[in-house]
Amino acid sequence: MILITESKSKGIPYSERLAELAVDALKEEALLTPKPGLVDQESSGAHSDMSIGLMLRSAEALQSTFAEMAEVSFRHPAGRVLREKLAEVGRRGENNMLLATGGINTHKGAIWALGLLIAGAAIHGPMSPIQIIAETAGSIARYPDRFGPGFETNGAKVRNRYGVPGAAGEAQMGFPHVIAKALPVLWNARRDGIPETEARLDALLMLIANLDDTCILHRGGMEGLLLAKEGALNILRAGGSSKAGHDSMRKLDREFVSHNISPGGSADLLAAALFLDRLHVLSTRFK
Ligand SMILES: CC(C)(COP(=O)(O)OP(=O)(O)OC[C@H]1O[C@@H](n2cnc3c(N)ncnc32)[C@H](O[C@H]2O[C@H](COP(=O)(O)OP(=O)(O)OP(=O)(O)O)[C@@H](O)[C@H]2O)[C@@H]1O)[C@@H](O)C(=O)NCCC(=O)NCCS
Ligand SMILES: Nc1ncnc2[nH]cnc12
């Protein structure tokens, strides 16, 4: 068992620590306000069946799933067996989520992305560069899942219709939107003295402006996706959420809600970016 030395968590198994960081990332994403089309502390965005309380409960229900994902990754190399073991734990995690939320899909994409990144982090151990973690996560995602769902998911429907990579493709490519879009915006904003909330909102806008989010495509088609990308890009071009202000974010939220747009995939990838950011900060602090 690997133990980490950070004082707050002295003696906590690394699997539990990784799970805690992933749950924290999910909670921080949910609490970040104001987000367009998504559940936050002010509204439920384009989701009539969700609330901030539900999102936080869903995140907490995933602690044991994430810890188990890390545990199996200590025991298996990045390969087909691990891919299938993670999928098995992931499906049980999806059931835990649905039990905690009364059947509402709050975090399916996040279980997928964070699960793979936890696996990469567990395999490489503390202090590993996050780029290597994301690459290993991608290599695991590229193994086929023999026991995949026997039905056509929302993501599969729009992937087939629009030819976009979706959540699976994003992972298989090593999370390019997290590594090359969200994290650089987050880090540059911090370097420029932009407050943390706005730095994170800008990272989210960067994701929305670039990602082919199957959650948006399934709800609003290509028209909805283009509208979402343009809206996010306009705020970034105006200097980001700190310059354009929270009212411009709230205006975008109203526009998203009126078109039933929810950037759920971008929200998941923001949580993935926050998770990797924490690992990065911890690894540089102890070097
Ligand atoms: C491989 C899987 C990810 C399955 O993916 P698939 O492509 O088949 O699609 P979905 O089942 O639809 O789920 C994918 C979710 O991923 C998020 N997402 C969307 N686009 C992207 C993207 N480009 N990059 C990354 N992530 C993306 C998104 O999740 C968020 O939205 C969810 C709500 O979406 P939806 O269900 O469409 O909800 P509504 O619009 O509200 O639907 P209705 O109410 O109208 O029905 C929310 O949960 C966010 O998380 C996509 O939804 C993978 O899940 C899989 O194979 N799992 C099986 C087990 C496994 O391997 N587990 C993990 C092991 S590590
Ligand atoms: N904050 C959020 N609102 C709606 N769907 C989400 N999926 C992941 N995070 C979300």
UniProtKB/TrEMBL annotation:
Recorded catalytic activity of this chain's protein: 3'-dephospho-CoA + ATP = 2'-(5''-triphospho-alpha-D-ribosyl)-3'-dephospho-CoA + adenine
Coiled-coil regions, chain positions: none
This enzyme's EC code(s): 2.4.2.52
Pfam families for this protein: CitG (PF01874)
Molecular functions per Gene Ontology: ATP binding; glycosyltransferase activity; triphosphoribosyl-dephospho-CoA synthase activity
Single GO biological process annotation from the record: prosthetic group biosynthetic process
Entry superkingdom: Bacteria
NCBIfam families: malonate_mdcB (TIGR03132), PRK01237.1 (NF002315)
Name of the featured protein: triphosphoribosyl-dephospho-CoA synthase
Originating organism: Peribacillus glennii
Lineage, highest ranks first: Bacteria, Bacillati, Bacillota, Bacilli, Bacillales
